[in-house]
Specification:
7 helices, FAD/NAD(P)-binding domain, 19 strands, seven-stranded mixed β-sheet, binds NADP nicotinamide-adenine-dinucleotide phosphate
Length: 330
């Protein structure tokens, strides 16, 4: 990227469903968006396996495949996708400045779609054993646990989805949950309860990950009785939720108490900085679905286009084809 590069109308930071959907819409509005997608592009869906609830895929789709298709779709309409990290932003002046490992980009508007990342359970030994039996990605690492006993920690959709996926490999899966009721959807609960390879340890937390070179077990504590026990196993998958990827924007943009980008109103994707918009999990701790993130990306592109138009830096009605989509006949 050269220092002389012209000012972009829209730069999208992030390459999950929100980022690529924003890119599709912005590209179709001839805004020639630049997607700074990160070295590890594709967002959380590249760490997942089957996606069964995204409309339009009656047989499900693999998360990485879906992200590759979204990227192709965005590029087809002229979005430029670069798989590099943004290292610093400056939103104090316009055009906004975004530093990357390959140079500086300037933008009239920015859409933040950096998503969220898997949280740790913060047990002793967890970090030291990360990648040596502690994982946050069943799709990536499940293969290593063929015919071995493992655990999944958490009580949400991710935990049960990982546990169910891991039944393909592991000999047995213990789901460890800190309460006595799951927050996962009923359909996943039913599948997990019916699976003979899965059992549950209720009201239980992991105190320590045991092992020298690799995970050999977990030290557990019953939150009701206080009793401690050891569970021998070969691996543990941590599925205890997510935190927003907003460190890059701290001090530049308003965040809420949990670190998500603060909403300015109930309707739009505006942030407190005019011209900077946010979409997807980076601002949403309620729904956090691929489909809601994609919807947010669409809104952010439309908000950015309207804002650019109001500033006089984009031609009016570029989104006309989106608002007044002709009926397609085949
Ligand atoms: P989540 O719903 O926030 O669940 C996190 C789970 O981890 C909760 O059960 C929580 O316990 C537990 N937990 C949190 N911190 C913990 C700690 N330090 N130690 C032990 N346990 C801890 O997160 P998620 O399962 O990743 O799901 C996130 C969102 O994505 C949800 O909206 C979910 O519906 C969605 N999602 C959907 C699908 C699907 O539809 N197929 C798949 C995956 C995710 P408590 O219950 O006690 O709070």
């Amino acid at each position: 990227m050269s220092a002389q590069e012209s000012v972009r109308q829209v730069v999208i930071i992030g390459s999950g469903p929100a980022g690529f959907t924003a890119a599709i819409y912005a590209a179709r509005a001839t805004l020639e968006p630049l997607v700074l997608g990160g070295v590890y592009w594709g967002g959380q869906l590249v760490l997942t396996s089957d996606v069964e609830n995204y409309p339009g895929y009656p047989d499900g789709v693999l998360g990485p495949d879906m992200m590759a298709e979204l990227r192709t779709q965005a590029e087809r309409f002229g979005a430029e996708v670069r798989t590099i990290d943004v290292t610093r932003v400056d939103f104090r002046e316009r055009p906004f400045v975004l530093e990357t490992d390959e140079g500086t980009v300037r933008a009239n508007s920015v859409i933040i779609a950096t998503g969220a990342s898997a949280k740790r359970m913060e047990a002793a030994g967890e970090e030291a054993m990360f990648g040596r039996g502690v994982s946050t990605c069943a799709t990536c690492d499940g293969w290593f646990y063929r015919d071995k006993p493992i655990a999944v920690v958490g009580g949400g959709d991710s935990a049960l989805e990982e546990a169910l996926f891991l039944t393909r490999f592991a000999s047995h899966i213990t789901v460890i949950h800190r309460r006595d009721a799951l927050r996962a959807s009923k359909v996943l609960q039913q599948r997990a309860f019916a699976n003979p390879k899965i059992d549950f340890r209720w009201n239980t937390v992991v105190e320590k990950v045991l092992g020298d070179e690799r995970v050999e077990g977990l030290q557990l504590r019953d939150t009701v009785t206080g009793a401690e026990s050891e569970l021998p196993l070969a691996g543990v998958f941590v599925a205890v939720g997510h935190q927003p990827n907003t460190a890059l924007f701290a001090g530049q943009i308003d965040l809420d108490a949990a670190g998500y980008i603060a909403r300015q109103d109930g309707e739009t994707t505006a942030t407190n900085i005019p011209g900077v918009f946010a979409a997807g999990d980076v601002r949403d701790h309620r729904y956090r679905q691929a489909i809601t993130a994609a919807g947010d990306g669409c809104k952010a592109a439309m908000d950015a286009e309207r804002w650019l138009e109001a500033q006089g830096v984009a031609e009016p009605n570029l989104m006309g084809e989106i608002y007044d989509m002709p009926v397609v006949s085949s």
